[in-house]
Each structure stands twice: as structure tokens, then as C-alpha cells.
Design a protein that fits this description.
By secondary structure, the protein is of the alpha+beta class. The chain has a domain of 215 residues: FAD/NAD(P)-binding domain (3-Layer(bba) Sandwich). The protein is 33% helix and 19% strand. It is built from 16 helices and 21 strands. The strands form 5 sheets. Strands 5, 13, 14, 15, 16, 17 and 18 form a 7-stranded mixed beta sheet that branches. The protein has a 5-stranded parallel beta sheet with strand order 7-2-1-11-20. Strand 15 and strand 16 form a beta hairpin. The longest helix is centred in the C-terminal third of the chain and has 24 residues. The termini are far apart. The N terminus is likely disordered.
């Protein structure tokens, strides 16, 4: 059946799409579009590296990243075999209940139960990005234009038909300057669908008002979190173990300043250690201050004790742009055809919750579902995409904001009633999950983004939270004797 609303790109005989931003969200969305459009162009301001290397526009890559089981499943669904490729290159696929040593915000240590259905990918962000990038950019019909900046959208309030490239930011393969090869006029690329995946720095709010659309409603919850990270060479004996656990000391939002830390074994026999603190308790980049923070600034000194026996490989690096920010595009009364927004450009979260990559993958699956159900050229499909993306975004948002809104000065208004209720109930679920494996199953279903928060209110969870059997609370960090000895904590 012919497209009922052909535009310039479709009448040329080929359906085209543009993804602005070579982020994880952008590349995963491009992987979906590549199977449904003839041509997909990824436009990225940075020069993207060939392998697992740092890039200027992604400072958060230097900090710890955890991909929860909801994200693992979504990544594997989008890029079959990606988990195997990551583990072949040194990433870990850990059993969350067995290979994660975690102190809850409410103070208890989680027991390390052996019966788990939840996994987590642990590796450097550079490795994760390199594997995803190679997979997506190697697909037929996908073209990368890196080193290219976007100035705005082409079209009007009813339809977006392309993008305008910034003067001086337009790249030809020979590096000579303005693009004259697209046949659409100086610095213009046309497409049937344009997707913004430029992350926290997204200019879509301004671009939409320039087209005559109303300003999008935003909500910001900023706990004033700063991060500091450092890479260590793991003690040799720890690499001889089948797997050294992730060690996580979580911050308590009811005890400001909230300070937390995580030690993540990554590829190359290294430990990536990230510590964080809210206003009045932020970590510093000074090496001595970093190690002192890990030893005395957290509610347990275990991370500081572990790195005392490890060799530092880098100086600490810091990041302070960590606010939770959500833009409610799905609520705009009108939305242009041919345009969608995904990833951190819709909602960015405090990185401590480890949900960004998982939401990006789940959002790409939501885009795929809409395109397959309604067809790329159907009127209203872009608005349907925006509403579908809001569902995984909302699940992660409620979990993050329900915690961070309790910090002083985090938001102009106190936590909403539903957020207070959810937070109080999650505290009870955490207490039950720390001592009851069945309760922990349900809690992880939610925290890993496998299911929405309503899972916590299912009859089985209510029973386990209120009446279920529990083991005695742990009084010290649940590292095994072998793990302690390998890390030099015991002779």
C-alpha cells in the first residue's frame, strides 16, 4: 500500500531516517531503524573512536556503569550476541544475588543468595560503547557522519523533514568544509524520520519552539551529587578467583549528605571505583582525599580497605552534572510528524541508580514496537513513539526521584504523595529482600527494570514483605574468606 503521506524523501523511492547523536541510545535506536528504513544516518558532533577509547563528549564514561538485567535482556534482543561479544572481551556477566555485595540505603547488608534470575553486565563504558558501535555501524544502510554538529530542525510545527547542520561543523570526506553532496541545499539533510538522541545537552526544547510549538514542561530533581572515579590494578590473587564481586555501599537519602561508593571489577584485571556525595559531602579529585573519602566518608569502610591494597592506575576524575531531569514531550498537545526524542534527551537520571543504558535499550524496543504495529509512514506514528518511550522512562524516573527528592534543596517542591508512598514501601521491600530470597526476587524485578514498580504490590510480594520468613540481619560485609584473603584483608 502506498504511503498515505509521502514527503520529499519517500517520493525519491527510499525511506530515510536520521539519528542525531552517536550515544548508546542513538545507536540502539539506529539498529531498530536500520531494519525498517532504507537509509539511516547517525550524525554525531564528536569524532567517534574505532575501539574502546574515551571521547570528549562523554565524560560520564569514566565512572562506573552497571547494566541491570532489564537492560541486559533489551540489549540482547536488539543486538543478538552482544553479551557474548562483551564477555569475550573481558566484561563480566554477574549473578546479581550472588556476585553483588551491597549495603542498602536503609543500612542492612544484602545476603548473597544463590538462587537468582537476575544478571548484570559489568565492564568499562568504553568497552560497552565500542561493542555496540561496531555492531550497529557495521549494519547495511547505516552511515556515520561524525565531527558534524546540528543547528536545528527543518520543517514546521506539523512535520519535521530534516536537519540543518551548523556552519563550520559540516564535514566532507575530504575535510574541505561545507557539504554540497546531499542534493538538498547547503547544510541540510532530509529524512522521513529524525530522532534526537543527543543526551542531557539536547536542544530539542529550543528547536520545537523555533517551529512554533509550545515549551515542553520539565521537572528537575537535583540532589547535588558529585562523582569521583579512579581505576586500580586489582590485587593479583583476586583475578585468580572465578569472579570477584561488585561491592556497593549505597547512600541514605534521609541522612544528608548522602555518600556512596561502588567497586566494579572490569576488563583487564582492573577495578573501577566510583564514590559520590551530595551537597556538603562531595568527593574531590585529589588522590589522597579520594582514598580517605572511600575509607571514612562512607557508611562502611570496605571499599577504602579494598583499594588500600590495590595499585592506582589513574588519577581521580570528577563529574558534577548529575541532576534528574525529565521533559514531558508525551504531554504536548501537538507533536510534529517525522520527529522523536529518546534517551537522556527525554530523561536523565542520577547515575547512581545505573538505569540510563537500560532505559535507552528499552526505549529502542518501544520504538520498534510502534513502527512494526503502525508502519513508519502512518500519520501520528511519531507521537505514538514519544508516548511509548515515556513508559520505560517513567519507571526509572519514579525510582530515582523517589530517593533523590528527599535531599535538601533537591527540588523546589517536596516529594509528591505517590513518591513518598513508593519510597516508604521500597524501604520495607529492601528490609525484607535483605533477608528473604523470594522478597529479593521481586525487589530486583523492579530495580533491574524488568517490571514496573507495581510489581512490588503483587500479592506474593505483599506476603513476603509483611509475613515472610527472614534470616538474621548481617552485621558485617558478606565477603567470603577467599575473597578477603585475595584482596589482602586477612592473612
Amino acid at each position: 500500500m502506498p504511503d498515505p503521506t509521502p514527503d520529499r524523501a519517500t517520493t525519491a523511492g527510499r525511506r530515510t531516517a536520521i539519528v542525531i547523536g552517536g550515544s548508546t541510545a542513538g545507536l540502539l535506536t539506529a539498529s531498530v531503524l536500520a531494519a525498517r528504513f532504507d537509509e539511516v544516518t547517525v550524525v554525531e558532533a564528536d569524532r567517534l573512536p574505532e575501539g574502546p577509547e574515551r571521547r570528549r563528549g562523554l565524560p560520564q564514561a569514566r565512572h562506573a556503569h552497571l547494566v541491570w538485567s532489564g537492560g541486559v535482556a533489551a540489549l540482547e534482543e536488539l543486538l543478538p550476541g552482544v553479551t557474548g561479544e562483551l564477555t569475550a572481551r573481558g566484561a563480566g556477566l554477574i549473578d546479581v544475588m550472588k556476585d553483588l555485595v551491597s549495603k542498602a540505603p536503609t543500612g542492612q547488608w544484602f545476603r548473597r543468595f544463590t538462587d537468582s534470575r537476575h544478571s548484570m553486565i559489568v565492564c568499562s563504558r568504553d568497552l560497552l560503547d565500542a561493542v555496540v558501535r561496531a555492531d550497529v555501524l557495521g549494519r547495511s544502510g547505516v552511515t556515520l557522519r561524525d565531527g558534524t554538529r546540528v543547528a536545528g530542525l527543518v520543517g514546521d510545527r506539523g512535520r519535521v523533514t530534516g536537519i540543518r547542520l551548523s556552519e563550520g561543523g559540516i564535514r566532507l570526506s575530504d575535510g574541505t568544509g561545507a557539504d554540497a553532496g546531499d542534493g538538498e541545499g547547503d547544510g541540510v539533510l532530509r529524512a522521513d524520520l529524525v530522532v534526537d538522541a543527543t543526551g542531557r545537552a539536547s536542544q530539542t526544547p529550543r528547536w520545537l519552539t523555533e517551529l512554533g510549538l509550545p515549551q515542553v514542561v520539565e521537572r528537575v530533581v537535583d540532589a547535588g551529587v558529585a562523582y569521583a572515579s579512579r581505576v586500580y590494578e586489582a590485587p593479583p590473587a583476586t583475578t585468580a578467583l572465578p569472579r570477584y564481586p561488585v561491592v556497593n555501599v549505597q547512600a541514605d537519602p534521609r541522612r544528608a549528605p548522602g555518600r556512596g561508593g561502588v567497586l566494579v571489577p572490569i576488563e583487564g584485571g582492573r577495578w573501577l571505583v566510583t564514590v559520590s556525595g551530595t551537597r556538603g559531602g562531595q568527593p574531590e579529585a585529589d588522590p589522597a582525599a579520594f582514598e580517605q573519602f572511600a575509607l571514612t566518608g562512607l557508611r562502611d569502610p570496605i571499599i577504602g580497605r579494598l583499594i588500600a591494597n590495590a595499585k592506582p592506575l589513574t588519577d581521580p576524575v570528577t563529574t558534577r552534572s548529575t541532576a534528574n531531569r525529565r521533559r514531558y514531550y508525551e504531554n504536548l498537545r501537538s507533536w510534529p510528524e517525522g520527529f522523536a526524542v529518546v534517551g537522556d534527551a527525554v530523561a536523565g537520571y542520577n547515575p547512581v541508580y545505573g538505569h540510563g543504558i537500560s532505559v535507552a535499550a528499552q526505549s529502542a524496543i518501544a520504538v520498534r514496537g510502534v513502527l512494526d504495529r503502525y508502519g513508519p509512514g502512518t500519520p501520528g506514528v511519531a507521537r505514538r513513539i514519544q508516548r511509548a518511550v515515556a513508559r520505560p522512562v517513567g519507571n526509572a524516573w519514579n525510582l530515582a526521584v523517589g530517593q533523590d527528592a528527599y535531599y535538601p534543596e533537591a527540588a523546589p517542591e517536596p516529594p509528591k504523595a505517590v513518591e513518598r508512598l513508593l519510597t516508604a514501601y521500597v524501604d520495607k521491600a529492601v528490609a525484607a529482600g535483605s533477608a528473604n530470597p523470594r522478597a529479593l526476587h521481586g525487589l530486583l524485578d523492579v530495580m533491574s527494570l524488568m517490571t514496573p514498580p507495581t510489581r512490588l504490590f503483587a500479592p506474593d510480594m505483599l506476603w513476603h514483605i509483611l509475613f515472610g520468613p527472614r534470616k538474621a540481619s548481617l552485621t558485617e560485609v558478606p565477603l567470603s574468606t577467599a575473597e578477603r584473603e585475595a584482596a589482602g584483608l586477612e592473612s
